[in-house]
Structure formats: structure tokens, C-alpha cells
Amino acid sequence: MELIQIDTIKWTSTIYITTQLYSLPAAVFVDAETGVVYFNGMYPRYDANGRVMVIPRDRLPAILARGRAQAAAAAKLEGRRLPEGIDYQRIKGLRLEARQKLSMYRPESIGQASRLAGVSPADVSVLLVYLASTGSRGEK
Known about the structure:
Elements: E1 3-17, E2 20-31, E3 37-39, E4 43-44, H1 60-79, H2 96-105, H3 110-114, H4 121-134
Antiparallel strand pairs: 1-2, 2-3, 3-4
């Protein structure tokens, strides 16, 4: 069975810590052979009628191609390194929360930065523009 990640969604969980309700990310995968949709690669996804969700065979190749393209793009971002001494406070365009998180965790790559809570896709774009403007190739 070959599972291809096609999406990441946030679903509300019943995990309560103090009085907050947390939203957990769930990766959505599809079996390349059967078209069965899974959460986190283990649990089949069910529709409102209790049936296992299956992607129709005519739509499956396009959805798999999109999932593979997204995986390739994520791998490319993982290879873009951030300079060690980067001062996130001086990068214009980053939101305050992103500056704080990036300064606290000091990610090694754009891929790691994109997975930090509090760093939006817009912040990742700002980092990519910053790397391009400073002439930093950011490659492994």
C-alpha cells in the first residue's frame, strides 16, 4: 500500500488542558491503489453515512499528482538553509509572533520554520524574499 499525503487539515479535538480547547493538525493520505482516504496514515476516514471514503478512480490520478507535487515542494523548502546568525527582529514584514517564535527556536531550514506554530505562509514568503535579497543561497 502506497500512501500519498494530499492535505493537512485542522480538526477540533476534545483535548482540554486547563480551559482551552486545542485544534490538532491531521494529515490526510490516500492509498494510491484503492483510493481509500486515511487520517494520519492509519485511520480510514468515514463520510456522514458511516461509509469509508474512497476517491473516485477518475479523480485519483490528479489528486495523487497534486499530493506528490506538494511533497516535492516541501522537500525543496527543507533543503533551504537559514543562516545561523540571522536576526529575525530586523527582518521587515515578519509578524511579531513569527519573530518571537523564530528567535526562540532558531530553525535550521525554511521547512522547519514553516512547521512552527505562529509562523504563517506569509512569514515563510518574507523569509524567502529576505534570503534572495541578501544573496544567501540557503542550500545544504
